[in-house]
Amino acid sequence: MKKKNYKVTIVVPVLNEEENILPFLRKFYDFKKKSKHLKDYEILFIDDGSTDNTLKKIKSLKLKNNKIKIIFFTKNFGVNFAFSAGVDHVKSDFMIFIDADSQYPIKVIDDFIKKWKLNNKIIFAKRIDYKEKMILRFMGFIFIKVFNKISKTKLDFNTSYTCLLDISIVHILKNLREKSKYYPALIRWLGYEISYVNCKMNKRSIGKSKIGMIQKLKEASSAITNFTTSPLKILTLVGIGISTIAMFSGLYILFGALTKGISVPGYPSIFLSILFMGGLQLISIGIVSEYIAKIYDEGKKRPEYLINEKIGF
Q1: Nearest Cα to 203, choosing from 125, 136, 110, 105?
Q2: Pairing of strands 122-128, 163-166
Q3: Looking at CB atoms within 10 Å, which of 47, 143, 148, 313 has the fewest?
Q4: What are phi and psi of 172, to 5 degrees?
């Protein structure tokens, strides 16, 4: 069993969420009064470069609660780096990462803590009745299917970034200094046992999600190239296959022309072959470029994120 006096850091990433901050905190305070498991806590807002009044709103609310801390990025770096900032600044017994849009009900915090008390170090929230645009849900399904097929690290359906991490796991993640990260897979790559809590999702209270199709495609591409070199191996096999087919096709045409007088195929077949091979080569170069770009980014050794302001530390 875990110790009785424990502290949790609730890490909340925000991007242009000025309308959601107050409703989120009200729900949290109501939950805190009823909770039997939430003891000492702090709320760490990671402002991922908001351009509205989100930061101003949080600052005003902090005046009423000194348990609120704020990290304000210089620009929008993305949810992975907001997660990194949380990992880098947590000093509590464990951290809980949850969005401010109230899609994940606040009571999931109690479910997390109950599991943590049973010596579970990594706990993810498994989404139930999650309403999402059909195209985004389909893309997510295909991504996880492909990722699990070509990578040794396996992802789960209906989970995202929302999770609890014990401080021992936080310390390990803090020492993994690669710049390009995809935490849902990186956490699983560690090899520790994963636990889950079921979480019935709510509708987003106010506003729209800031993560659209383009961001999800970028995230999917980054995740795949972070955790597997299978695309490069697949290209090699495709190249070998096409070369083999081309060689035998050439021999067949040559043999037919010499022995049976079969005419050699004309311009249409040549034109289509050139288009096919040209497209394949461009795709191949694009995939190789993704890996080279990662090496380039890592080699520059720039910081993962830049902090414009820290409040409450």
Answers
A1: 105
A2: antiparallel
A3: 313
A4: -65, -45
Beta bridge partners of 37: none
Smallest Cα–Cα separation from 43: which of 52, 32, 51, 33?
32
Please provide the average confidence, as pLDDT, over all residues in the chain.
83
54-62 helix and 18-34 helix, angle to the nearest 10 degrees? 30
Residue type, 154: K
Coil, strand, or helix at residue 111?
helix
3-state secondary structure of 212: coil
What does the pLDDT look like over 17-72, one tens digit per residue? 888 899 899 999 999 988 888 888 999 999 998 888 989 999 998 988 889 999 99
Q: Where are the alpha helices (DSSP H) in 35-121?
A: 54-62, 79-89, 108-117
Phi/psi for 69 (5° steps) reads -125, 155
- How many CB atoms are closer than 10 A to CB 113? 22
pLDDT tens-digit series, residues 67-121: 999 999 999 888 888 999 999 999 999 999 999 888 888 999 999 999 999 999 9
268 phi and psi, to 5 degrees? -55, -45
